[in-house]
Amino acid sequence: MITNIENEKVKKSENMDESMVAEDGRVGCSIGIMAYNEEANIARTIKAVLAQQGPSIRIEEIIVVASGCTDRTVPIVAELAMQESRVHLCVQEKREGKASAINLFLKEAQSEIAVLIGADVVPEESALEHLCSPFKDQKIGMVGGRPVPINDPATFMGHSVHLLWRLHDRLARIHPKLGEVIAFRNVITGIPTDSAVDEISIQALISQLGYNLIYRPECVVYNKGPVNVRDFLKQRRRIYAGHLKVLAQQKYEASTMKVTPIAQQLIACRDFTMSSPKQAMWTFGTVALEGYARIQGYYDYMRKREHHIWQMVDSTKDLEEGQRKMRRICNAQSVIVFRFIVEGSVGNDVQREREDREATEAARKLLPYLKTRVRKEDKLTVNGPGILTAVIRAEQHGAELVAKRIKKLVEESTVRVGMRGREVKIQVTYSSLTFASKAANGKMTVSGPLLDEAMADTLTDEAVSIE
Length: 467
Fold this sequence. Notes:
This protein is of the alpha/beta class. The protein has two domains: 2-323, Alpha-Beta Complex (Spore Coat Polysaccharide Biosynthesis Protein SpsA, Chain A), CATH 3.90.550; 330-466, Alpha-Beta Plaits (2-Layer Sandwich), CATH 3.30.70. It is 43% helix and 23% strand. The chain contains 16 helices and 14 strands. The chain has an eight-stranded mixed sheet with strand order 3-2-1-4-7-6-8-5, sandwiched between helices. Strands 9, 10, 11, 12, 13 and 14 form a six-stranded antiparallel sheet that branches. Helix 9 (229-250) crosses helix 12 (277-302).
């Protein structure tokens, strides 16, 4: 198998035109998503990829390879493909392993740049722009992004997952170790079908063709790590056995296999690993688990136990619950302003004072209930006549979801107001602003529905004045 790959891997390279960057300066991308029973996440991932924008990239196609799926993954993707022409579905009736699915994707991919993203990860806004823009340099052959786990670091397993990805981030900045989301030049025809660590197999082939590898920490994707010891050991055991196999077959060693650099980075990030007795104990426990998993992986490698058809790590698949936790590590703050209006209000000058007073009373009475339905760190306050303000850690899309939930809760409630305790229903309107630091220099960007409308009005006014 390896001989075949070595003989064929330059096939695309010989046929590739070095000037494949489009006339508009953007590079074309084929996105590959390998899916096995991903009905809970696949639609969200595809929509998140379709929403990616940037001045340097053009998403030409999204190819989903569904391998031996027994759930609703295939019909979900098929429905999305009917709505969006760039989405294509390839079905493998029998599950043959992720490497086999990747080889099918590479056979179908037409663009200059191939991107692999997991069906169970969510890319941050502009993640693919950060990932693919370096390919304007013809020397760059492969780029990897930075996975950020959504697990709660205040638990032992959450601490373990965050620690491993922090170490991965620090090591990758020194010696690129690319995984979870990768982009590479479409110059290889395939990888060994028995590889259990596809990213490292691709990294070996691309580097052996003479291209440079780079790690882009600005490209952030959110994933979910194991939440129990059993799943943690299962995942880490497979990865180490796979790394040993790549070292033997492809003569390529992942930078994370060496113990000394890992130990150095453990000390370097001691603010996370040892800042308290509990963290030090959890760090020691993580090191012990990783060591045990590597022993198991070595045993599997020596016994030639195959891992290319992965065992499902079920606890990493529940992104629906985890997506709410993503706000914990989001770098954006959103302010949502709600206006409470008592149903039936006429809004004239005579009645306005009473109606505002009743709306404010309703807001104050509903406030304790609403606080129980949002995160503890979200701040809800009554700020004026019928005005409720929410300050939350979320991007604009997340703020919109929170606003809709609060609006629904309020409008489904009945409140007693006034001296006589009159029962009233409340109508709610709202708007939001999102403040996010998007640049390395800390420059703040502001977005929100009102700003978008104002821009549209400004453009309309300018058009009228020009005429």
